[in-house]
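Methyltransferase-like protein 27: structure tokens wanted.
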Amino acid sequence: MADEMNATKSPVAKQATSVVRYHEFLKNYTDDAGTLTAEQKCAKLYDNWTTYEQDVANASYNGASLSTAMLSELCPDKNISILDCGAGSGLVGEKLRAEGFTNLTGNDISQTLLDIAEKKNIYKKLVCCDGGNVAKLPFEENEFDALICTGCVSPTAIRPKAFVDWTRVVKPGGVFLLLARHRYWQTDLTNKWPKLGFIDEFDTVIQDLENSKKVEMIFKRVVPDYVEGTEGLAFAFRVL
Ligand SMILES: C[S@@+](CC[C@H](N)C(=O)[O-])C[C@H]1O[C@@H](n2cnc3c(N)ncnc32)[C@H](O)[C@@H]1O
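Answer:
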């Protein structure tokens, strides 16, 4: 989670756990050796990350509260049905519940993190599935009023191609909101690991969705202090 580029500079020893873990993951991820698919690699990372909540707290992760505040701004009705895509251990669900949203469904590729979320009793339904490269999520057409995806859209986890199916499960007039590290849309990551090209795919998917009148952008917003004091980038779209 934490900024792997600053791994050795962090003055706080506790932060190193998440920094080192994620850095190792990226190194292994870009190494061709091994037979795991991209999704299996991600599931393995998070399934073995039993200190996830402690580590992200130590990394000053504010993604859950930032995305929840933006969704609240977009959706004043607290009764809407929301899919928390990449729900993980339920940090976003906790914030949504505290804001008054109660109709929550979550999906994630890591059963270990979903087990933590389950114990919090905030989601009506939690589904373990790949939400990254799937043609179809295991949800009905128009099942949700809103979809929130926090900290998961990335070159290694939920790729932009997944947005196409988001427009199927979110009903017309509904919204989807994503928030992730700003640096994924900057060039330093792809310069270091060219295989993690992400920006072109993002632009192509969004352009196709806009051109085919499936979505319109509500906002694109840089948010400070997303994790370890670094910026996040949020996009909100209305499904047409
Ligand atoms: C950084 S965590 C964020 C979790 C949660 N949204 C939060 O804010 O704490 C990224 C999450 O994405 C999930 N993930 C990664 N790849 C995925 C995929 N292909 N499909 C579904 N979930 C995925 C991971 O298991 C992990 O829970």
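Residues 16-30 form the longest helix (15 residues). The chain has a mean pLDDT of 87.

Cheers.
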